[in-house]
Design goal:
The complex is a heterodimer of chains A (116) and B (114). Chain A has no helices and ten strands. Chain A has 116 residues and is an all-beta fold. In chain A, the strands form two sheets. In chain A, strands 2, 4, 5, 8, 9 and 10 form a six-stranded mixed beta sheet that branches. The chains are: A mainly beta (116), B mainly beta (114). Chains A and B meet through strand 4, strand 5 and strand 9 of A and strand 5, strand 6 and strand 11 of B.
């Protein structure tokens, strides 16, 4: 597709269950970011992938959170043993490596996670 | 460490009046600066960016922003506000020097009153 695609768009899960959120970046974009937006909060950086380099995981809030990016394209964010405080919108964004537009990151519509 | 401050949680402006949404930043080197807009229940949409060159940057929907290096600011402006501009606005910064993380402000809610 033309934009960043995220699925599911909405997910309600029970506390303690694991969830997987998927991000399909814009074709050809080498950089991929995950952010979290909680109600009334700004965007919290989670993790950054750039090509084949080791990801920057410095924003992951706990070891229950992990992410991978297969083949330099699709990424999956996994939250294990979900807690109510994990309820938030998880936003994925991608960026090309070229000059000019390579400085702009483009966001998907987000995955709205509710833990009950 | 890089950071962004948006000092106003909410800005109210009458339709047709000029609007300003404030943003200041901190980076160790030179900045790339961005503004994004978020409508309810949507993702973030890119508005404009400053990379280099002219300090006044023009973007989508009639918005513009002025980069002021001495004041480390990048305020978003529009000469005449529309009710449809009501949304949440985010300022963001990335250090040109190398670290690739893009840091966002907490957002400013713009309310345009008819």
């Amino acid at each position: 597709g033309a934009g960043v695609s995220q699925s599911p768009s909405n997910k309600v899960t029970e506390k303690g269950k694991d969830v997987e959120l998927r991000c399909d970046p814009i074709s050809g974009h080498t950089a991929l970011y995950w952010y979290r937006q909680s109600l009334g909060q700004g965007l919290e950086f989670l993790i950054y992938f750039q090509g084949n380099s080791a990801p920057d995981k410095s924003g992951l809030p706990s070891d229950r959170f992990s992410a991978e990016r297969t083949g330099g394209s699709v990424s999956t964010l996994t939250i294990q043993r979900t807690q109510q405080e994990d309820s938030a919108v998880y936003l994925c964004a991608s960026r090309s490596s070229g000059t000019g537009d390579g400085n702009t990151i483009y966001f998907g519509e987000g995955s709205w996670l509710t833990v009950v | 460490a890089q950071s962004v401050a948006q000092p106003e949680d909410q800005v109210n402006v009458a339709e047709g009046n000029p609007l300003t949404v404030k943003c200041t930043y901190s980076v160790s080197g030179n900045p790339y600066l961005f503004w994004y807009v978020q409508y309810p229940n949507r993702g973030l949409q890119f508005l404009l960016k400053y990379i280099t060159g002219d300090n006044l940057v023009k973007g989508s929907y009639g918005f513009e922003a002025e980069f002021n290096k001495s004041q480390t600011s990048f305020h978003l402006k529009k000469p005449s506000a529309l009710v449809s501009d009501s949304a949440l606005y985010f300022c963001a910064v990335r250090d040109v020097g190398g670290y690739q993380k893009v840091t966002f402000g907490i957002g400013t809610k713009l309310q345009v009153i008819p």
